[in-house]
Specification:
The chain has one domain (4-109). The protein is 0% helix and 65% strand. It has strands spanning 4-5, 8-9, 16-23, 26-34, 40-48, 52-55, 58-60, 69-78, 81-90, 93-102, 105-109.
Length: 110
């Protein structure tokens, strides 16, 4: 599902994931430099209804930062889940991860 804020279509591809907070079934992603022209400097993406989080197909207790920051490769709703693909940066190291937030729905981008 495409996420829209007002009449501007936001692109999360190549945006920076600067923070993650999960409180039970609610996940908040702090995102910077998003939009096709990176015109939006900062936004909080709220995902509600998360029943479980899978990392590369395996359940994890909670979604958390795995590096200093991360580059969002994909963020979208699909088949009753929210998919988040991230390339984590940690100093000189880079590693990718794919998360499925089962039962989740992108509730807002503010």
């Amino acid at each position: 599902m495409a996420v829209q804020e007002s009449s501007t279509r936001l692109s999360f591809h190549d945006a920076t994931l600067a923070g993650v907070r999960q409180d039970g079934p609610m996940v908040r992603l702090s995102v910077t430099d998003l939009g096709d022209d990176q015109a939006v400097q900062h936004a909080t993406v709220t995902i509600e209804g998360v029943q479980a989080v899978l990392r590369s197909g395996s359940p994890i207790e909670q979604l958390r930062m795995e590096g200093e920051d991360g580059e969002i490769l994909a963020l979208r709703e699909e088949s009753g889940t929210v998919l988040l693909a991230v390339l984590w940066h940690d100093g000189r190291e880079f590693r990718d991860a794919v998360y499925h937030m089962v039962g989740g729905k992108i509730a807002s981008v503010a």
